[in-house]
Structure formats: C-alpha cells, structure tokens
Amino acid sequence: MTITETPAPRSPSKLWRRTKTVLSVVLALAATFLGLLFVTFIIGRVVPIDPVLAVVGERASQAQIEAARTALGLDRPMWEQFYIYVVNVFQGDLGTSLLTRRPVLEDIKNVFPATLELATIATIFGVLTGIPAGVLAATRPGTWIDQIVRIIGLAGYSTPVFWLGLMGLLLFYGTLGWVGGGGRVSNEFVDALEFDIVRVTGIVLIDSALAGEWAVFGNAVKHAVLPSAVLGYYSMAYISRMTRSFMLNELSQEYITTARVKGMPEWRVIWVHALKNVMVPLITVIALSYANLLEGSVLTETVFSWPGLGMYITNALFSADMPAVLGGTVVVGLVFVAINMLSDVLYRLVDPRAK
Amino acid sequence: MALIEVKNLSVFFEAGDRIVQAVKDVSLSVDAKESYGLVGESGSGKSTILRAICGLAPISRGEILIDGKPLETPRGRAFTRRVQMVFQDPYASIHPRHTIDRTLSEPLAIHGIGNTDARVVQALKDVGLPESFRFRYPHQLSGGQRQRVAIARALMLEPEILLLDEPTSALDASVQAETLNLLNRLREERGLTFLMVSHDLAVVDHMCERVLVMQHGRAVEEMEHGALANASMKTDYARMLYEASADRMLG
Amino acid sequence: MSLLTVKNLRVTFDTEAGRVEAVRGVNFTLGRERLGIVGESGSGKTMTGRSILRLVRKPGRIEADEMTFDGIDLMKASERQMRALRGPRIAMVMQDPKYSLNPVMKIGRQLTEGLRLREKISDKEARAKAIAALEAVKIRDPERVMEAWPHELSGGMGQRVMIAMMLIPNPDLLIADEPTSALDVTVQAEVLKILDDLVKERGMGLIFVSHDLRLVSQFCDRVLVMYKGRVVEEVEASKLMEAKHPYTQGLLNCLPRIGGGRGPLPSLDRSASWAEA
Amino acid sequence: MTTLTEWLRDPSPKSRLQARVGQSYLGWLRFRRNPLAMAGALIVLALVVLAAFAPLIAPHDPIAQDLSQRLLPPGTPGYLMGTDEFGRDILSRIIYGSRVTLYIVAMVAVTAPLFGLLIGTVAGYAGGWVDQVLMRITDIFLAFPKLILALALVAVLGPGIENAVLAIALTSWPPYARMSRAETLTVRNADYIAAVRLQGAGPVRIIWGHVMPMCMSSVVIRVTLDMAGVILTAAGLGFLGLGVQPPLPEWGMMISSGRKFLTDFWWVATMPGLAIFVVSLGFNLLGDGLRDVLDPRSAGK
Amino acid sequence: ATPADTLVIADKIDDIVSLDPAEAFEFSGVNIVNNTYDSLIELDPNKPGELIPGLAESWDVSEDGLTFTFKMKEGITFASGNPVRAEDAAWSLQRVIKLNKTPAFVLAQFGFTPENVEEMIKADGNTVTIKLAKPFAPSMFYNCLTAGLAAIVDKETVMANEVNGDMGNEWLKNNSAGTGAYVLRSFKPQDSYVLDRREGYWRGDAKLKRVRVNHIPESATQRLQLEKGDIDIARGLSNTDVAGLEGAADVKIETAPKGYIYYIAANQKNEILKKPEVMDALRWAVDYKGITETVLKGQMMVQQGFLPAGYLGSLDETPYSLDVAKAKELLAAAGYPDGFEVTMTVRNDQLRMEMAQAIQNTLGQAGIKVTLKPGAGAEVLGDYRARNHELTLQSWGPDYPDPHTNASTFAWNPDNADEAKLTGVLAWRNAWDPGELTAAVDAAVVERDTEKRKAMYEDMQRKFRDDSGFVPMFQEIAQTALRANVSGFHTGGTIDSATYWYTEKN
Ligand SMILES: Nc1ncnc2c1ncn2[C@@H]1O[C@H](COP(=O)(O)OP(=O)(O)OP(=O)(O)O)[C@@H](O)[C@H]1O
Ligand SMILES: Nc1ncnc2c1ncn2[C@@H]1O[C@H](COP(=O)(O)OP(=O)(O)OP(=O)(O)O)[C@@H](O)[C@H]1O
Ligand SMILES: [Mg+2]
Ligand SMILES: [Mg+2]
C-alpha cells in the first residue's frame, strides 16, 4: 500500500519547551510570592496593633512616638510603603525587626534552622511510622490492627501539642531521664555549641557532626528526639490515615491481581506494586504536612524552649513587629513554594501519567 | 448534499515531547439518513474522528461541515440537539453516582424540556429496558443494559445524527444482537443518520451502507455495502481485514 | 493424565443484597489441550478461571469437591504453595489490560520482575527474554515498549504485553481471559498461532475464555458453554456449530455475518430452565 | 410494617421519592450493619443531646466560681470530673461547652470544605489561567501562617464566635481545594463528563452536578479528620481574644487554661482533652460510615 | 547538671529591646545593664532602699538644691582597660538626653534638653557637676541616678564604634562597655544571653565565671529543668509550679515583693464609670483576699495604694474588701439598681486572665456584667492610650526607685483634654482629672524634708484610693526557685534589677 506523507507539524524544540516550563514555573512562583507579600502587607495594616508602641514601649511620650513613626516610614502613603517593601525584598532586604533590632533575614537565619531540624526529623518520623501503619491497617481492614492504628492516629490528632509535650517531658525527661529537657542542647554543652563549634548550617546535629564534637551531637540528639517525636506524631497520624485510604483504593485494582497471578510474594504486591501507586497522591500529603511543620509550631517550640520560626513569627505578630512578620511570612511562603515544586517534581518522577 | 462532511481532516496530539498524528488527511461524507461505517486497525484514528466532530479532539487541519455549515467552537446547544454520541465503554460513560433517571433527565433539564417523567419512561421503553430500571444505579446494570441507557441518553434530545463508537464491542453476542437490532429499529423509526465505528466487519456490514477502511490514521478505501460481501475490495489492507474475518465467519 | 481436574466448583459472594452464586458446580478436566469457555457476559467465565488460581477477592468464597493441578490439591495447598504455582506453573492473561497493568511501572519492569525474583538471572538476560517475548506477540518496537508506561499503549498493545508477560515463565497451564478482544483480526490470528504452538509443541494446557463463539469453535479442541454459573453444554469445538443446547444455538444465531441479511438479528429467548441443573 | 420495608427495599422503585427514600433506607441498613459507624453516630447524637439539654443534665452552674472548692480531683463527691482553678465543676463546663463546640464544628465543617470544594473543582475543571489564578490564591492562603491570617480576619470583622468560625474556615479551606482539584483532574476526562458536555451542559451544571459528587468521599474523610484540629484552633483564637471569651465554657479554652496546672492537677486540661478525643473519634467513625453510604457502588449487587 | 562555674538562669527574656543603657528599659534588659555597668551612686542590693557609692566616691548638693557634685573614685577601669574619668560620667548622662530614647524622661524631668545638657552636666577634673533647672527633693534626684539609664559607659570605646552619629547606640545593642562585674559575651534575642566575669572588678571579682540566662517561656519546663538540676535558678515559674516545688529537697524558694502594681482603670469619659458611687462599688466588688489566697496565691499581695511596698510613703492599709451587698447599694445609689454592662480589656497572658476572671465573677455578683476582651499587649495598650477602653486591667512598674515615679503618672494630669495627648500619663489615659492632686504631686517632688514628703505621698494615696478613676488592687511578688546550693542571688526587689555578682554555688 502506498501512503502519501503529509508533512507532520514540527514538534517544538526541546529547548523551547524547557524554557517555557521554566518560565511558567518562575512566573507562577513570582505571582504567588507577590500575592503573599501583598496579603501580608495588608494584614499588617489591619491588625489593630500599633507597631510604634511595640518599639517605644509603654512609657514613651507622644513626641517620641511620632519620631519613631517617621523613622519607620509609617507616615508615608500605604502604596509607597508597599512599593519600598517589595523593592527591598527583591534586593534581599527584609527590613529590620522592631523587636530584636536586627535585620529580619539574620533573625530568620538564626531561628529557621531550628525549625527545619525539627520539622525534618518529625516528617521522617511521620513517614517512617505513618506509611507502615497505614499499609498495615489497609491490608487488614476492619481488624483490631486497623482500629488500633485509627485510634492512635486520632489520639494524635485530638491531643493538644502542649499536653503531649509536657507529658512527654515529665515522663521521658523528668522521670526516666532518657531525653534532654528543652533547648537544643544541655547547658553543659551549650557553651561549646555557641562559642567553639563553627556555625555552618545552624542545624545543631549537622554542625556538631561536622566539627566532630560527638558529645555535643549526642546531646543534641537527646534534645531533638522528644519534640520531633511529638510533632512527628501529628504527621504520622495524618499520613497513616491517608495511606490507609489510598492503599485500600489501590488494593482493589486489577493490577494487584495481575501481580498475584504472576506469583509475586505478598510483600512485593503491597510494598512495591501498590505502594508505588499510593506514593502518587501521598507525595502531596507528605509535602503539605512538611510545609506546615516548617511554619513552625509555636506551642511545641514554647514547651521545648526551641527557638524556632513559629515562636519568632508569633512573638513578632503580637508585638506588631511587621517587618519580622512580613519577613517570616515571606520565608515561610518561599519554603512552601519550594516544597510544592519539589513535590511536583517527585510527582512527575513517580507518576508517568503526569506530563 | 451530504449531511456530514469531513474534509481533509488531520488531528495531532501533543504527547510529552512527541507529536502524535492520530488522523491524517481523512475525508468522508455521510448523507442524511445514511449509516456510514468506519473500520480498521486498532489505534487507526477511528474514535478520534468522532471525537473531533464533537469537539472532544482538536481539528488540526481541514474542516468538518454539518449541513454545509462549518462547526462552531465550542459546539453550541444547537449542535448538541442535532448530534449525539454513544461512547465505546458503557462502564465509563455513565456517571456512577447518578441514577438512570438522573442520567436520562439531565439532557432535558439542560435544554429546559419539560414533561420529564413521560419522556424518561418512553426513552426506557424505546431501548427496551423495563421501567423498573429507572431508579437504579449503573452498577446495578449489566454492560448491555448500560449501553442501552447510553443510547437512550443520546436519543433524549432527538438528534438527527448519532455517532456510535464501537457500541457493541464490550458486549457479548446476544446482547450485541439486541443492541444492533435496537439501533436499526430506531434509525428506521426516526430517520437517524449513523456514523459508526467498529472493528468487526460483520457488524459494519450488517449495519452500514458505506464503509471506510482506515489504517495508521489514514483512509485506505471506501466501499459500498455490497462490495464487502462480494469481496471486491481494491486495497491490500482491506482485503487482509476481510480475509481474516471471513476466515472465521465461514469456518 | 489430565493436567487439571475440577469437580463441583462453586464461587459465592455474600453481599448486602444477598448471596450471589457466580459459579455453581462446574466440572471439567483438562489435558494438554485447548479448552474454550464461552458464555454471555456475567456467566462466570472469569470467576472460573480465577478460582483455579485461588484469586477470588473477598467477599467471594471458593468451594469445590476437587480441584487438582498436576497432582497438587489446589483447595488444600497453602498460600505459599499457591504462590509458587502462580506464574511459573499456572498463569492467567487478565481480561482488561487497561486496568491490569501497574500504571506506575515501566512495561519492562513488569515483564522481567518475575524472572528476576525467581530465577535470579541477570538483568540483561531477563531483558533479552522479555524482548523476545514481545517480539513473539508481534509488538513492532519491543525496545521502545520495554521503556514505555502502560498508559502509552493502545488497548491492543496492552493485551499483547499481558500475553507476553504470562508466557515468559513458560507455564504449564495458561488461562487466557478474553486475550484478543481488543485486537484487530489480523493481529489476532498471529497471537492465536503462538498459543497454538505452545500447546502443540510444549504440551501446555490452555483455557481460552471468550464470548466469541466462532473464534472458539475454530481455535479450541473442546468447548464449555456457560450460562448463569453453570456449564450447560460441553462439546467438541469442531461440532460447536451443531451444538444441541438452545442457548448455544441462540448465541450462534444472533451473530451478524458478512453478506448476511439486513433483517433483525435473531435474539436469544432465555428460558429459566437453562439455569437449572 | 412489612409492606413498608418492602416498599423501601423495592429494587425497582416506582417514583423518584420511593427511590430516594429507599436509597437512604438501604444506606441506613448498610450503616447500621457497621458497628463502628453506629458507635460514631451515637457519640455525635450524645453530643447533640448534651448540647440541647445542657441545663437539665449539668449538675452545677458552669460559670459560678467557688474559690474554696478549687482544683478538687475527679471523683470528689459532687464533682465527677473535679473542679478547675476557680472551683467550677469541670463536668458541667464540658456539658455546657458542647454547645459552643458543636456550633463551631458544625459551622466550620460546612463552610470550609464547601468553599474548598468549589475552588478546587472550578480550578480543576476550567484549567488554563483560571486554574492558575485560583491555585495561586490557594497557595498563598496555604502558605500563610494560619494564626496571622485568622488574626487579621478577626481584626477586620471584630471578635466573636461567628468571626472566629469564619477565620478558621478561611484558614482551612486550601487543603480541601487542592484535594478536590486533584480529584477533579482525574474525573474531568472521564467519558461521562464528555457525555454531559455533549448534551450542552454548562460548566456550572457539570461542576456542581457531576464533578463534585465524585470528590465528596475524600472530602468527608478529611473533614472528619480535621474536627479535633478545628476545636483546638478555636481554642487558640479564644486565647488571643478572638473567639469564645471567658467565662463561657469552651473545650479548647479549658484545655489551654488548664495547661498551667498540668503537672500537679492533670485533670483540669485532660478532661476536656478527652472530651475532644471522644467527639473527634465519633465524627471519624461516623465519617467513615457516611462515606460508604455516599458511594452507591459499595451497595453490592 | 550545670557547669560548676556557670550560673544558669531560666527566665523569660523576650522583652529585651536594647542593651544600650540609654535605651534599655525593659525588665530583662535592665538586669543586664545592672551587671555590666555601674552608676555614680547605686542602691545596696543587700539593704533595699539604701544608697551606696558607685563610681562616685562622694557627692554633695548645694544649699539651693540646684547643683550636685560627684567626686569620682580613682583607679577604676572599664572592661576595655580605659580608666574611668569624670568626662565619661558626664558624657554618659549627656548621651541619654541627646539620644532621647524612651527612658530619657527620667533625667529630662530635671530640666535637661539636648541643647542645654552640655551646660548643665559638666566634668571638671575628677568631679562631675550637675545643675538642675529647679530644686527637687535631693533623694528624688539621687534615686533617679540609680536607674539603669544613668550607667556610666566607656566613651572612648563607644565612640570608636559610632556609626552615623548614633553615639554607639547600634553597637551597644550587642556589646557592653562598662565597669561592671560582668561583660556581655553574647546575646541572642529571644533565646539567651551570656555574661562573662570581668577579672579585676573594683568591688572584687564575681564569684562565678559565667552567667547564662536562657529564654524558657514555659513554666512547667523551667520547673522540670530545675528539679533535674539542669538550671540553677528559675525566674519564670507560675504560682502553681512554685507551690508544687515546695518541699522539694534540693530546691528552695525565695520571694520578694516586686514593684508592679495591678489596677483597674475605669475610663472617666464613660458616663457610668464617671459616677463616684460606681467607682466605689467597683472597689467593694473585688475579692482582694480570695484572689491573693487562692488563684494568685504567692504571686500577688493586696496593695490599695499606687506605691509599691518598700517605697517612701507606701501604705500598708487595705480598707477595701469584698462586700457585694455594699457594692449593690452603691450601684443603686448611683441609679443602677440592676447593674450595667461593661467591657474590660486584658492582656492575654494567663496570670492576667485568671485575675480578670476572678474579678469578673465578683463584679458580676454585684450586678456589673463584665465582658472580657483579651488582646495582645500592644493592642490593649494602644486602646488605653487612645482612651478607648471602658474598664481595663493593667499593671504599672516604677521607672526609678522614687515615689514620684508613680505619683507623677497616677495622680498627676495637668491637662485632661484629648488634644493634650499626655499618653505617658496614666491619669490622662484614663481621662481622670486628679484636681488638686496634680499640685500636690508637684509639691511633693520638691519637698526636701523626707518625713514631710512621706506624709504627702501617704495623703495623696488615700485620696487617690478613695476617689479616683482607678482601683489599685495588687502588688506582684517575685517567686524565685533556686537549687539549694545557690546563694547570694538578689532579684532586686521593687527596683527589679537582679545582681549576679554575689551569687555562689557550693
Ligand atoms: N489525547 C491523546 N493524546 C495522545 N494521543 C492520543 C490521544 N487520543 C488518541 N491518541 C492516539 O491517537 C491514535 C488514534 O486513536 P483512536 O482512539 O482514534 O484509535 P481507534 O481507531 O479508535 O482505536 P481503537 O479501535 O483501539 O479504539 C492512537 O495512536 C492514540 O494513541
Ligand atoms: N465482588 C462481587 N460481588 C458480587 N458479585 C460478583 C462479584 N464479582 C463478580 N460477581 C458476579 O459473578 C458473576 C460472574 O462474573 P464473571 O466476571 O466471571 O463473568 P464473565 O463470564 O467473565 O463475564 P464477562 O464476559 O463480562 O467478563 C457475575 O454475575 C458477577 O456479577
Ligand atoms: Mg476507539
Ligand atoms: Mg470476564
């Protein structure tokens, strides 16, 4: 048979596609970011707390307040303040915190690693326990194992974090002495940490390991265990519940039978065939919960004296320290967008159907 | 003048980094009240042509005319009242959470046609389903029954043209027979025009006045009804198809 | 000696709406031959096939007076023994390739997985075997298909991949559940040829499930005709056209044929008595 | 009686009404057969009864202070769950607190998921720039520290339970939006959607009538999972002066003010905590049961 | 365990705004200043209220009470090694006025302005001469000089770190340049600060080499750490945790009254609250005793004057107590036999919320339906300063250890008009016109006879107590829990600045 070729349309070049994707991602990022700045800014103006009062304190006279207001640029028109702010942010200047009197960026460099450390360990904990628990429950739906997983998860969900934290401290620190009691290292080691160990990442576990200070490292582990377990419990609760529900769905698919027909052992059917499919929606779930943890949990940080982002932003908020609130929000937003993108990339890696 | 005219239609899909040419430069025309068949290899673009008419696939080149007039994009309400489609997979084409009643009355509601109850009952009767099925959910029906519901739904708006995408390939022989009979009866009663896809030559031969054979997205050969039975096809591919089928038919 | 003996096989589902008996007392034996199972949709063909592998999902239950494969009592075998049988000894081509391939695993992985896990051969060898299998089922570009994801295949390709996947471990018994329904006739013929060769040359037993009576009558040695979970008739395939049972006759009659009349196709008038023993 | 059940169970109903009632009846049967779902329903029912008849059930005035009776342990005669720092009966406060709790939970559970569902399905269905814009907005709200958002909202609207509820709803819709968008994306290309589109259905009808029902079950799961979180968030807002104000009893507030006493008088914070746990367990079990009922496919053949 | 030569204190230090003595005005900041700097004259940490020499060896006041001279001690050096000169002292005080940060008014009230301060405060050899604009009670001036802002800073070092004419303000936020027993080693806002002992401190070296203060906001955490010996001193315990620690073998509790006064302010612009009978009813409707003996036990004592116990002229009489019947009678007399509804703003910390709920309860019994409006500190304060409150629960700590500090804010309001914007003055914020009390306050501050002065403040407070828009209620008590082996720790009592250098561990 003869077939006359109609010229096929040329597929746009790979390079152009790539640039287009990158461009659209960057654009979306910038839009989110600008929106974030805008909303934060507006919020800063509607919150009924006068930032100047926070700076000058209770005793200040009216004249001192006015002077401070001018110094902070708060007397200028709103749009101008916003414009100045955005321009500065894009130059990497998040302004100066009214409360700590330091550049917000520097403050955040101090508090964010602490939160990052906690959130990361907690998420790892949540993933390592939540997925198996959810799978276990899904493979035995309706049994007592399923119920136990559900109750444990729910308990995690409905217990206030300070309750868990304080009880954990009472038991594991107060009574058993297995873990450290608040702060990132004990007071014997804190001087070493502060004055001797070079600060590379700000994450104690990494910095102390880099410096070869294993005593500090060990101590830091003891201190991080409890707060991250408490936070991890929450992500575990959520992840296990979602895993169960996704898993149940996958296990009723035909391809699972196919795998069994091939004589695949049960572990492989569940942990390879089904789990790979479960990972597709689960990635979003995990990313979201990680991002939420990175916002910092004020209560956990308070109970464990963990100087993190949550406490920083909340403090700033209550003192109407708007540069700090804005800065914190911007950083949280950035982290969020980054994690979103990461989860998108992972998603594409795992799910071939997503273009 | 032809009711449906497809002129030099090409359909391209972007799939990842590749361009898939699903349909290449296909022309066909269907007269009013005619039944026109599309057969051919799997993946040769048969479904895509139907989808392109409905606006579910892009028209990359060429044009499609109904009654000599080009189609508007998106297809308007007038179009939907003239042209309806029955999908290949009766399991995927009916909303799993809606009762049959809801599925059938939906088009009436969309077009503000009253007298719903009577029409739904009549539609069920037309496709030979008992009235008691009216409030069932799709999962309570067999594949053949679902396909009849899909046909009933397509007929709710009393269209002139029915696009049928392998309406019986998911059905077994007895149900297939029922469905084919039903379609023929309805065509006669209502003067419908069919554009029908199938990969079963016997079905097409039974149903259609003219047949277009497709391969690799291209039209290979158009045959009149008699030509198939006489085995008087001109191209190798059409002959191959015929022989492989006839082989079984006669054995 | 017969490869598989099934006596009084029953598959029951206890659902909210009551008990559904999908298979009700099916008996047959299978040697190294091609056994066709035909019947309308929902007549229990797939369930019969799955029960042999003991892969009926809950709430389904399998009961049988006897089910032996090659001297092994399938009803009593442990789950572990069953697992050893599935794949290398008994394989099943699943009905709907669209849903039966793991959507997030490359075709290549799915094809070689069994080999690598069981036979501990190198990746390269496994790959070569898989490609050979794909070539055997007339896949045009096996190298590309190895790297493809299931959603990138057309329905017909999926079916062939499924057949290749099940043939790779050289099973003694293959249950093929409507393996060619999405293939156009030309490809269909070639695939059937492969199955035929395997039965003739290697002595594989084949259960060929289909609702296409003509196809079965041409291709198989013996045919079971099922209706509502029962075997209503068992005949030599070549004699299917002369089958006595009105159900079988009805099924045959209602097929259109090329050059046949334009009149309404005869429809099947089901009689309640067929469902009874 | 038998005729009624027969009428209800009729597999081929004669009218829309019978079909609908019959469907609910079957759902109820399915639900009833699930002991856990029943337990959940009972808990929720108990909560409603508690809230409705609080004055009749509560042994004490939940507000009256008696400083001489403060911090009595559970089991003290007359104070089954003990007393708090002002000598108020904790049991009575929990009983009265169920009113506020129920109100908040009910309001949030209705507004946030609905709003999220709306945004998500519209974004997912429309695609293109609508999707882009809506998802960017969702991202912004998602990326925002919740407390700041809530605070700002209440700052604008003024404090009060209603506004607190609104604030919580406003901070909790984005996850629902993302979830239902993802679900919509898979549903959008289904043939049954193409079919209604071919019948000339507009986007509103398709989204509302055809896409949303498909997203319901995962939303229900998530909502019931979020219940406890909502109660605790409400407490957080109350403490900031944005929600329920003392001395009105509210479980979350009771927990957070009991925090000070946790080491020595554990019951002050733990009792309301248990109440939250039980209620959220109830909603969860109920939610699981409901999901089965919502999905007609699970009805069996 | 804590290192043997380090004192580890748990406290809440997120109030620190600045460590520059001319700017530090918050509790925790002043603590640091007190331990890193010295002033000309100081208060004896061991004997509350007594003046002792600081960097000045002796001091003197002229007959007319206008000129003060201070003779500097010889041979004292700053931590940098620079000798302490009279010039440093004069410059330090001038700097406060020139920088004009929030606390500057403590000195400015004596008539110094940025323009005249170089004239008024002069160094001459090793004496410093300070001229006041008008005569004040000398004790008043001395007391003001003991406040943290009058600390003497190392001019050379500070000026070497000047940027943009800020007189080293920026640099001093993270560094110390004083003569004190300790030098600032590090400061991490909202986290911790570390002080290192300065060898060769003129009063004798501090006993412990290092002091570390950690920010630990949660009382229960502080308590656990103290019990486990992971800290030496806990300064932020709740009263329940202190009660829980009582009887523990290796922990001891020390209490001392603090300077903070808790009071209710009732906006006098409000038609109802303006009525004297209503104010009286409020006074009789607070359960002073019940609150201090139960809810806030150990944390508050009853104080019905505006001066904290320990200040010159403070009252120890408490004529008001809970009397619901009387309050009702008074309300009826005011024309509100059924009471009335009113809102009360409160800062949303737990202590104040508890206090507020207890007050709400008894006010409610009397018929005054109070709706609590909790809010962030700055929010509540903003409301108060804008005179927008109805009732507000507030606290006030003295700025310097002289009765004038509280008198001049509670009982002094020369112009009650909105436009006057005397937002630093509590009487103005509360829209209360003290009438003749304003003059009385002005008179008392220049009264040079201490006994007479004392009587004046007592008299003033009685009038204020019975007849103002305020209801003073409580004075805060500092509860400090220490490991049993710690001794010599001074919280500073009513002047609220802790002394670390006498503290020992054994
Ligand atoms: N959305 C799409 N994106 C990419 N490729 C597509 C898309 N839809 C169809 N195709 C491709 O277009 C070609 C024609 O598909 P079409 O469904 O029209 O075939 P068909 O002739 O109907 O086959 P069958 O008989 O199997 O239904 C196929 O190769 C298919 O892979
Ligand atoms: N989970 C289940 N619950 C209840 N009934 C079931 C279930 N699974 C299958 N069945 C019933 O079992 C019967 C046999 O089904 P089976 O899949 O074997 O049919 P089949 O002959 O393979 O039909 P087809 O040609 O459509 O594939 C059907 O009536 C079906 O409704
Ligand atoms: Mg097709
Ligand atoms: Mg089947």
UniProtKB/TrEMBL annotation, chain A:
Bilayer-spanning residue ranges: 21-43, 118-139, 151-173, 220-239, 270-291, 324-347
Keywords: Cell membrane, Membrane, Transmembrane, Transmembrane helix, Transport
GO cellular component: plasma membrane
Domain ABC transmembrane type-1: 112-347
Record GO terms (molecular function): dipeptide transmembrane transporter activity
Record's bilayer topology term: Multi-pass membrane protein
Family the entry assigns: Belongs to the binding-protein-dependent transport system permease family.
Name listed for the protein in its UniProt record: ABC transporter permease
From TrEMBL, chain B:
Membrane topology: Peripheral membrane protein
Organism: Falsigemmobacter intermedius
Enzyme class: translocase
Name by which UniProt lists this protein: Glutathione import ATP-binding protein GsiA
SUPFAM superfamilies assigned to the protein according to its UniProt record, in alphabetical order: P-loop containing nucleoside triphosphate hydrolases (SSF52540)
Catalyzed reactions: glutathione(out) + ATP + H2O = glutathione(in) + ADP + phosphate + H(+)
GO BP annotations, alphabetical order: transmembrane transport
Function: Part of the ABC transporter complex GsiABCD involved in glutathione import. Responsible for energy coupling to the transport system.
Highest taxon listed in the record's lineage: Bacteria
Residues in coiled coil: none
From TrEMBL, chain C:
Any one GO BP annotation for this protein: transmembrane transport
InterPro entries named among the record's database cross-references: AAA+_ATPase (IPR003593), ABC_Ni/Peptide_Import (IPR050388), ABC_transporter-like_ATP-bd (IPR003439), P-loop_NTPase (IPR027417)
SUPFAM superfamilies the record matches: P-loop containing nucleoside triphosphate hydrolases (SSF52540)
Membrane topology value: Peripheral membrane protein
Record-given protein name: ABC transporter ATP-binding protein
Gene3D superfamilies recorded: P-loop containing nucleotide triphosphate hydrolases
Residue stretches making up the ABC transporter domain: 4-253
Gene Ontology cellular-component annotations: plasma membrane
CDD domains attached to this UniProt entry: ABC_NikE_OppD_transporters
Coiled coil: none
Organism of origin: Falsigemmobacter intermedius
Keyword Chaperone applies: no
Similarity annotation: Belongs to the ABC transporter superfamily.
PANTHER family associated with the record: DIPEPTIDE TRANSPORT ATP-BINDING PROTEIN DPPD (PTHR43297:SF2), OLIGOPEPTIDE TRANSPORT ATP-BINDING PROTEIN APPD (PTHR43297)
UniProtKB/TrEMBL annotation, chain D:
Ranges where the ABC transmembrane type-1 domain occurs: 98-287
Primary localization: membrane
A GO-annotated cellular component: plasma membrane
BP terms from Gene Ontology: peptide transport; protein transport; transmembrane transport
Classification via Pfam families: BPD_transp_1, OppC_N
Transmembrane regions: 36-58, 100-127, 147-171, 219-245, 265-287
Membrane topology qualifier: Multi-pass membrane protein
Signal peptide: none
Localization in the cell: Cell membrane
Keywords: Cell membrane, Membrane, Peptide transport, Protein transport, Transmembrane, Transmembrane helix, Transport
Record-stated family: Belongs to the binding-protein-dependent transport system permease family. OppBC subfamily.
Protein known as: ABC transporter permease
Organism listed in the record: Falsigemmobacter intermedius
